[in-house]
Amino acid sequence: MYKVNYYYSNIKSFFHNDNPEETVGIIGYLRGDFASSGEEFHTTWFDVHEELKTLNFKTEIDDVINELRKGILKDRSSMKKVFSNHPNCVMNSEAGISRGVFVETEHYEYAFRLIGDKGNYDFYCYCADKNVQPPHLRNARRFRDENGQIAKTIEEVSKLTQAEALNYYTDGDRYESGGNIYTFRKSGMHMSFVSETGGETEVHPDKLGTFLPDVEYLGMSFTKVPLKQTLSTMKLKDLMQSVEFKDVHLVHADEDIDLATVAELNKNTLTQEGKYAWSDVLNARVTKVYEGAYGMQIECSDIEPQRLSEFSHMLAGNCSSRDFDKWVNHDTGQEQDIKM
Questions:
Q1: In the chain, helix, strand, coil percent, each to 5?
Q2: Which regions of 3-158 does DSSP assign to beta strands (E)?
Q3: What is the pLDDT, as a whole number, of residue 227?
Q4: What pLDDT score was predicted for residue 293?
């Protein structure tokens, strides 16, 4: 069984893309035309991730194309009927005006870019394995009809997705929305997404599921940032904002440094003056978080080794009382060594 949908959520899925993060799950694409007569049918296949081109996929795409040959893909004039009957699928791009229609089956999504201009290719079809492709890269959104209109009330959607959302959104994890990165915060019944710039989007617990990437009920979703991507861009200050560490050691990625045990490291550890004084260390890139010879260790790069060591010793209390009081919040549980 398959469903033809006359809307789209991700316009990039209808075009050739060389970005590895945006082609996850893409098996390949089909290019087709109806020749000059508008009634012939010629196609060419191009692999993207050949390892995903299984026998089940080959069988299914043949069935899907054969069924569409009875309607949308029968000929050029049949395709153009879609253009006037379904205005929601119009796409404006650098390549000109086309239409985005996608077919959804249990395991695959087929994104058809329909062109229909004589002398040009008439359509492209980008095929994705839904078991591999992340939900936010798909076009299908749950609880919608073939034209993309929501078919359930927000109360119904909230009830059906709440348990799933509570599992997907984890306190302290990072999520992306509209090109911005947010940290999900949960304290009792209070839930919110806090941006890196300090902005906050509060969410009612009952409606958390409406923000799932393949639901996007209110036009906004929060998609989990993969750990690999997180570590490729994460700075020490980001990690401190998201996670609370106890008895941790800061190590340098390239050089051995004099270590000190930091009793607590979190978003409340430093005062505003401390954040300013140690801004270079806070902007160090986190390359690894792991259990090492000294227990929990945070490996950092893009920072002078000596500064990282001095930062650790300062947090361990190996500095003057004046500096410690100026840079470290008193309620963090840190204990300062007495200096004579």
A1: 30, 30, 40
A2: 3-5, 26-33, 42-47, 90-93, 96-104, 108-114, 123-129
A3: 57
A4: 83
pLDDT greater than 90 at residue 259: yes
CB 27 within 8 A of CB 52: yes
Q: Are 267 and 172 in contact (CB under 8 A)?
A: no
d(CA 81, CA 83): 5
DSSP codes joined into one string, 167-220 = HHS-TT-EEEETTEEEEEEEETTEEEEEETTS-EEEE-GGGGGGGSTTT-TTS-
**By the 8 A CB rule, do 209 and 135 touch?**
no
* Confidence (pLDDT) at 294: 82
Contacts within 8 Å (CB) and 24+ apart, 182-191:
182/222, 183/241, 183/242, 184/222
Q: Where are the beta strands (DSSP E) in the chain?
A: 3-5, 26-33, 42-47, 90-93, 96-104, 108-114, 123-129, 174-177, 180-187, 190-195, 200-203, 223-224, 245-252, 262-265, 285-292, 295-301
Nearest alpha-carbon partner for 237 in 183, 188, 185: 183
Lowest mean pLDDT across 27-41, 189-203, 230-244: 230-244
Share of the chain above pLDDT 90, in %: 69
Mean pLDDT calculated for residue range 208-233: 82
pLDDT over 80 at 285, yes or no:
yes
What does the alpha-carbon distance between residue 109 and residue 82 come to, in Å, rounded to a whole number? 19
Is 251 within 8 Å of 312 (Cβ atoms)? no
Res 338: pLDDT: 36
